[in-house]
Design brief:
The complex is a heterotrimer of chains A (321), B (298) and C (308).
Chain A: H1 22-25, H2 28-43, E1 53-57, E2 65-71, E3 74-80, E4 84-85, E5 97-104, H3 120-133, E6 145-155, H4 160-174, E7 183-191, E8 194-197, H5 201-209, E9 218-226, E10 231-241, H6 243-320
Parallel strand pairs in A: 5-6
Antiparallel strand pairs in A: 1-2, 2-3, 3-6, 4-6, 7-8, 7-9, 9-10
Chain B: E1 7-9, E2 27-28, E3 33-36, E4 41-42, E5 46-49, E6 52-55, E7 59-64, E8 67-72, E9 84-93, E10 96-100, E11 107-110, H1 126-130, H2 132-135, E12 141-149, E13 155-158, E14 165-167, E15 171-174, E16 187-190, E17 193-197, E18 202-207, H3 218-225, H4 231-249, H5 256-266, H6 278-297
Parallel strand pairs in B: 4-8, 11-13
Antiparallel strand pairs in B: 2-7, 3-6, 5-6, 7-8, 9-10, 9-12, 10-11, 12-13, 12-14, 15-18, 16-17, 17-18
Chain C: H1 8-19, E1 35-39, E2 47-53, E3 56-67, E4 78-85, H2 99-112, E5 125-127, E6 131-143, H3 148-162, E7 164-166, E8 168-174, E9 177-182, E10 189-191, E11 199-206, E12 209-212, H4 216-220, E13 224-230, E14 251-257, H5 264-298
Parallel strand pairs in C: 4-6
Antiparallel strand pairs in C: 1-2, 2-3, 3-6, 5-6, 7-10, 8-9, 11-12, 11-13, 13-14
Classes of the chains: A alpha+beta (321), B alpha+beta (298), C alpha+beta (308).
């Protein structure tokens, strides 16, 4: 990676102190045991994952549209800016383009500090985000223009791509970019016969690592779809999974995405209502102001007339004298 | 269900050469002196310097009386008036289309050299000019004839005959233009399909067009042009396409006879996809060459 | 990709052909075009391979270097992929034109090789926690005629098959530093175990069906393609008879490319189609590599070179 000379990079060989904590030294089996234990405790609470999403739009005032999404501890903020002409391009393109940038905050990950310059993972995520939202946008409506979508991951606790896609979809809706359908995404970590829907960082990491000696299914899948049109816009799998397992996971994720739609709709509607109300208030206050102004104006006119009459008569009298 | 995959090693590479004679012509390289200037005329592919005639391309010499030309071994298409070409529309411009014909410069098709619906002697109105995209748009393929050659070497085309015009369903094969033999006829209706061997090295293979009856209106004809092509026709088209590929790999001249012969030789292969194999390609080319030699010596 | 224009009626012809499972050169939906492979073509690389698939030409060189393993995985080596889309392939790649494509391919490869069941990084370990081998897999795209992902993955697997790691005779702890003693004999080297290394299969959705190995024209007709990475079968890559129990092929990565989308049903059938195709590819590749290996052991290798 090219060095970033504009910033002070800190010593190259610094390591996180967490390496020396007992947690780090735990073996794979121990970690797995811990995780399962934790999960057993958790399972009593409803596993309705769709309920654990918190979303809000219109969080950044200067962007055309923006959204903030929280899934478990993962926090993503996403903003969409006005379309602009595609830079550095001479050829005319009939379809608009979407430019995505996903960035991790330097302090977003638990294990180590993220470098401020984008690395390979950031780029791969940006590409994945573009792939996911591109089919949803009516790109023929803004030929030769580009819409910028920036997603910033403030805190990463697993399934950050799914959160970023959800946030980007909401931000696009908030920016009133024409879209075919609402876009929702969900992810899943698979470890042997266990499936963790919307995994947290621990689960994700364990599912990715796996034990090489055993020939078990392990991996992470992120799926985004347009539920109303029943179209999958992106499907990213990593790890090693049997086909049956992939297909089973797909069905679950599909359902998960569908369940997420009403939540997202609610956020959008809430935002619309908020805006309408705000507009109403503005409208009413404007009316009030107008009335007051009108009144003042009338008063002023009256006084002006009186004054001018006075002036006139005064000058008249002075002439006479 | 298993797919066909073949991976061969470089050491098992097939030599596609089928040349029978070992005599090689004299080759000239750029900058090489051909002769003194005294009694020769400078043709294409040559230049003069210090009273010497020199080659500017790599190729073989052609001499017509006093005129000396060097014909490059591999070149883009150099057009001549009356050539049949197949081209692709690149751009719609003011009153003309820009067409890619594999020549050095893009060719031009004027709006005035196209047959528009409603008779040949129709005047080109402003409306025609505005709806040029309806006639031909970017990406469309056409067959045309070279009408004239501009001073800079770019070609002016025309499609003012019923046999020329927009091409619909089919596949395009691109070969070296030097492999195309100049013939009287470049439109062939053989084997139940039609082949247009463009002089520019673009070969168009398409199903034969159905005879349209008088009472068909325009819309129906348009619709018929996009109807699915039957599998048997597809099989023949694929075979012809692969035959051409085989002949080209062995650098053999292409015309209706060689294609037809190659097709007949290819019938021993059961499916068209078997002919993608380099050995099969060589086999077909070799047998065709053999038959051609036999015919010419007879 | 390669910005050739194509007319609407040509597209119709291709789409109908795919629907009938008879493509314009006679192939069916899971047939590949013939390929040509050569290994050990670059003398300065530890392993190299060149693969030609119709008009696509890929050259892969593997360089091995010594590195310090990551603190969280002290027992594992490293592998990294770099793709270079040179402007030699098409003028479109000039400047930063090919960068996006290169990034997509390299990140797909990285993902495909991620799982230890696909490529075991333990074999690159020299001294746990201190030193390991790092493989730099550099992929050069010399010519671009469609279906890059598949060709790249085949060439990479062949290059890794060809890679020889020098034997480490001894590793001595000298204070905090490690002293490595390598064997003097350059032929004293070990091969990598790449039997399970994944192959990528691109499934191009044309009309309502998916095809493998699309030509450049077919790629123009499609708006979405699915890339499926499938782990290999080690049985194809060894000559001796001690047959390892057949491992079922698994998906090591799946991703989508292009501006379109897929219905869930198509996606499912495409994944299965991809696994079938990958199995055929793996079989053919193993066969070719073993033939090549035989040849090299009999006579001194004669190099054939690039771009036929």
């Amino acid at each position: 990676m090219p060095l970033d000379y504009r910033r002070f990079n800190g010593p190259d060989d610094s390591v996180s102190y967490k390496r020396f904590t007992p947690d780090f030294l735990k073996s794979y089996e121990e970690l797995l045991g811990d995780l399962l234990e934790k999960n057993n405790l958790k399972d009593e609470q409803a596993s309705d994952e769709a309920q654990r999403v918190f979303a809000e739009t219109d969080t950044i005032s200067q962007a055309k549209g923006s959204a903030y999404v929280e899934i478990k501890n993962t926090k993503v903020v996403c903003s969409v800016f006005d379309p602009r002409e595609i830079p550095h391009q001479n050829e005319f393109s009939h379809l608009g383009q979407i430019y995505c940038e996903v960035k991790f905050a330097p302090f977003s990950c638990s294990s180590q500090r993220r470098p401020p310059a984008p690395d390979a993972e950031d780029k791969a995520l940006s590409e994945a985000l573009r792939q996911a939202i591109e089919p949803a946008v009516c790109r023929h409506l803004f030929p030769n223009y580009q819409i910028d979508v920036f997603a910033y991951i403030i805190e990463n606790d697993g399934s950050c791509l799914a959160a970023a896609i959800n946030a980007a979809g909401l931000a696009l809706t908030d920016a009133a970019v024409p879209m075919y359908d609402l876009i929702t995404a969900s992810s899943m970590a698979i470890l042997d016969d266990k499936m963790f829907v919307v995994p947290n960082e621990e689960e994700e990491e364990l599912a990715m690592k796996s034990q090489e000696s055993k020939d078990i299914n392990h991996g992470v899948i992120t799926l985004s779809m347009l539920s109303e049109l029943s179209q999958i816009t992106s499907f990213i799998q990593i790890g090693s999974l049997e086909t049956d397992c992939v297909i089973k996971a797909m069905d679950i994720l599909e359902k998960e995405c569908k369940e997420l739609v009403p939540n997202i709709q609610k956020v959008v509607v809430r935002n619309v209502i908020k805006n309408v109300k705000r507009q109403q208030i503005l409208h009413e206050s404007a009316k009030e102001m107008e009335e007051i102004l009108d009144e003042k104006y009338n008063l002023w006119q009256k006084s002006l007339k009186a004054k001018s009459y006075l002036c006139f008569s005064l000058s008249f009298f002075s002439l006479l004298a | 269900m298993t797919g066909h995959v073949s991976i061969r090693l470089a050491s098992e590479r097939v030599n596609h050469s089928v040349a029978t004679s070992n005599e090689l012509p004299r080759f000239y390289t750029p900058g090489e002196v051909i002769s003194g200037m005294q009694d020769f005329m400078r043709g294409h592919g040559t230049y003069t310097e210090d009273d010497n005639l020199k080659s500017s391309v790599a190729g073989v010499m052609q001499k017509v009386n006093k005129l000396i030309c060097i014909r490059p071994l591999k070149s883009r298409y150099v057009g001549e008036i009356g050539d049949v070409v197949v081209g692709r529309v690149l751009e719609v411009q003011q009153r003309r289309w820009k067409v890619d014909t594999n020549s050095r410069l893009d060719s031009i098709l004027q709006l005035s050299s196209v047959n528009l619906p409603g008779g040949e002697l129709r005047r080109r109105s402003v409306e025609d000019e505005q709806s040029m995209r309806k006639v031909l748009q970017e990406g469309d393929l056409i067959s045309a004839e070279v009408q004239s050659v501009f001073s800079d070497g770019s070609l002016s085309l025309h499609t003012r005959s019923l046999k020329y015009g927009k091409l619909v369903q089919g596949t395009l094969v691109k070969v070296f233009p030097s492999l195309i033999k100049r013939r009287k006829n470049h439109f062939h209706n053989i084997l139940g399909i039609s082949i247009i061997i463009g002089n520019n090295g673009y070969i168009w293979i398409s199903p034969r067009e159905k005879e349209s009856t008088e009472n068909d209106d325009l819309e129906n004809i348009e619709k018929a042009k996009l109807e699915p092509v039957s599998i048997s026709i597809r099989e023949i088209m694929a075979r012809v396409k692969n035959c051409i590929a085989a002949l080209v790999a062995s650098k053999m001249m292409l015309d209706d006879t060689s294609i037809l012969m190659a097709y007949e030789e290819s019938l021993k292969y059961e499916t068209a996809k078997e002919m993608l194999d380099p050995e099969a390609m060589l086999d077909i080319a070799f047998l065709t060459q053999h038959r051609l030699n036999y015919v010419t010596t007879e | 990709m390669a910005g050739s224009l194509i007319s609407q009626s040509e597209q119709v012809f291709i789409v109908h052909g795919v629907e009938n499972d008879f493509r314009s050169d006679g192939r069916s939906s899971i047939d590949y075009r013939p390929m040509e492979l050569e290994t050990d073509v670059v003398s300065h690389a530890s392993g190299s391979a060149r693969l030609r698939l119709a008009n696509t030409d890929i050259l892969v060189g593997v360089k091995t270097e010594i590195d310090v393993p990551k603190p969280e995985t002290p027992g594992l080596g490293k592998i990294e992929f770099f793709v270079d889309c040179s402007a030699n392939a098409t003028p479109e790649f000039e400047g930063r034109g090919g960068e996006q494509l290169a990034n997509t391919i390299s990140s797909t490869m990285q993902r495909a090789y991620y799982s230890p069941q696909a490529f075991n990084l333990k074999q690159l370990c020299i001294f746990e926690g201190k030193q390991c081998w790092k493989l730099y897999v550099d992929i050069l795209i010399l010519e671009c005629g469609g279906n890059l992902c598949d060709a790249v993955s085949l060439a990479v697997k062949a290059a890794l098959f060809n890679t020889r790691l020098p034997c480490v005779k001894a590793a001595l702890m000298d204070g905090g530093n490690i002293d490595l003693q390598l064997s003097d004999d350059p032929y004293d080297s070990k091969q990598l175990d790449i039997g399970t290394a994944p192959l990528l299969v691109t499934l191009c959705k044309i009309g309502t069906k998916c095809v493998v190995d699309p030509s450049a024209e077919e790629e123009r007709c499609s708006v979405i393609s699915l890339v499926v990475g499938v782990t290999g079968n080690p049985n194809f890559y060894q000559t001796d008879d001690n047959v390892i129990p057949d491992i079922k092929c698994k998906c090591s990565t799946i991703s989508m490319n292009g501006p379109g989308s897929l219905s869930p049903k198509t996606l499912k059938s495409a994944i299965e189609q991809g696994i079938t195709a990958a199995n055929c590819l793996d079989n053919a590749l193993g066969d070719a590599l073993l033939r090549e290996k035989d040849e090299i052991s009999y006579l001194k290798k004669h190099s054939y070179g690039f771009l036929k």
